[in-house]
Amino acid sequence: MENTYDHDDYNKPSRLQMAGFALRVAAILIDSLIIFGILMIFVGTALPVLFMSTSIGEIGESAALGLLLAYFFGVPMLFILYQAAFECSKFQGTPGKMAVGIKVTDMDGNKVSFLRAVGRNASKIISSTIFFIGYLMAIWTDKKQGLHDMIASTLVIKKN
Question: How far apart are CA 39 and CA 63, in angstroms?
């Protein structure tokens, strides 16, 4: 069965073909590798500077606090901004989404704003809770939307 969504605007394509769960998972795996690479570059350059700029006795608490803050706030913010910046661009998707041929749109197939893209990606925190049920919803909902897509009124569709 083909996953399509009809909408009423006669100026738009009559059917949007929804992206399935497997394509979305493949895209997030690719994007995770890219983010991991960016983080490794940062860690590879920042840690030596940190260790050279402080005495051995000062490293313990300040480094632990910095790494803890970076992990709990920096990494999620990096991921949210990375995805939002690409999703509101002319590409309408991250490099992972582009690689698998999908894009993020509003409910009519139009490009989303930066604020909507930030909201969509920030609400993935909610989708991640309780065993990733919010992500899994894309398997059984009519428009193949995860909880974060429903919150932001977005669709993930296949490119034409």
Answer: 16
Measured CA to CA, the distance from residue 131 to residue 23 in angstroms comes to 20
CA-closest candidate to residue 152, choices 134, 133, 130, 136: 134
Buried-exposed string 76-89: b where 16+ CB fall within 10 A, e elsewhere: eeebbebbbebbbe
102: phi then psi, degrees, rounded to nearest 5: -130, 165
Query: Which helix (H) or strand (E) covers residue 103, if one does?
Result: strand 102-106
The pLDDT tens digits of the residues spanning 6-62 come to 555 444 445 789 999 999 999 999 999 999 898 888 777 766 766 666 555 555 677
**Residue 151: what residue type?**
I
Q: What's the pLDDT at 52?
A: 66
**Residue ranges per structural domain of the chain:** 15-158
Which residue type, as a one-letter code, is found at position 110? N
The pTM (predicted TM-score) of the whole model is 0.81
